[in-house]
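Schema walk-through. Below, the input block comes first and the output block second. Nothing else is stored per chain. Lengths vary across the set, and this one has 165 residues.
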Amino acid sequence: MKKIFILLCLIGLMSCEGDSPYSGYAAFFSVDATHEPFRQIFGYGEFITIKRKTHSSYEVTDVLGNKYEKRLSEFEMRQGFQYGYGGFIVGTDYENILRVFDWACPHCDLSIHRLEVQNPGFAYCKNCHTRYDLRYGGIPVEGESRKRLWRYNIFQAGNIITIQN
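--- output ---
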C-alpha cells in the first residue's frame, strides 16, 4: 500500500511539469512604491505597466495611460534590473494581493505583442484578440488563447516592492 501511494505521488508530480504559471524569463526590479505612479498598484483592480526604455531608464504607464520615464541611479544600474520578456503589468487582484504578470501575450509568444491594459483589471491582445482578467490570475476570458498570463513573484518590505523570479 505504501509503495502504491509513493508511485501515485510521483506520477502526480510528473504530470504537473510545465504547468507552472511563473515565467521562465529573467526578472528583477525594485522600487519605492510610495511615489507616483507606483502608489496606484494598491487600488483594487488597478494595474500599471513597466518596461525598459533605455539602458539607463524605464517607462511606467499609469492607470490613466500617462507615461513616465524614470532614470536609473548608478546603484540601480549595478543591480542589473531585468524586465522579464515583454515588461511587467503590476497591480492588486480581487483578494487584495499584489500580482505581477508579463506584459507579453503568452499565446502569441512575442515580446512585441504587448497587451493593452484596460483598467479596472483587464488586458487585451490586439493580435490574437484575447482578453485576460488580471484580477483573477491573468486567466483568458475571451479570444483564442487558453493560456494564463505568465507571472512573476513580488515581495513587499515596507515601502519597497521587488519583482523577481
